[in-house]
Amino acid sequence: MPTLPTQFTGVTVTTKANVYFDGKVVSHSVLFPDGTKKTLGLIYPGSYHFGTGTPERMEIVAGACCATLDGRRETTAYAAGQHFGVPGKSGFTIEVTGGLCEYICSYLG
Fold first, then answer.
1. 3-state secondary structure 41-86
2. Domains: count for the chain
3. Predicted TM-score of the model (pTM)
4. What is the CATH number of the domain that holds 17?
């Protein structure tokens, strides 16, 4: 399995945080010279639903979570070093039961 990046170089990072669910999910946007965007964030314990505009890839950097894609019944557990994809114009529920979950979200569309 490929390793997750530990740093990004030559990027622009927005200083204003993206804050969701009363501060239980917080991220910062990372903009790449080629126009692509990622967010780096933290998820506190709880269950949260997100909608997607474009396809996304969620990479778990630290901690763990469970995710359920919209329209599916099965919930899958993910640990550090694992990832899951979410179709565009869809959504997913992510649940963290203990500690923090750190992630990289790549916007693919």
1. EEECCEEEEEECCCCEEEEEEECEEEEEECCCCCCEEEECCCEEEE
2. 1
3. 0.93
4. 2.60.120.10
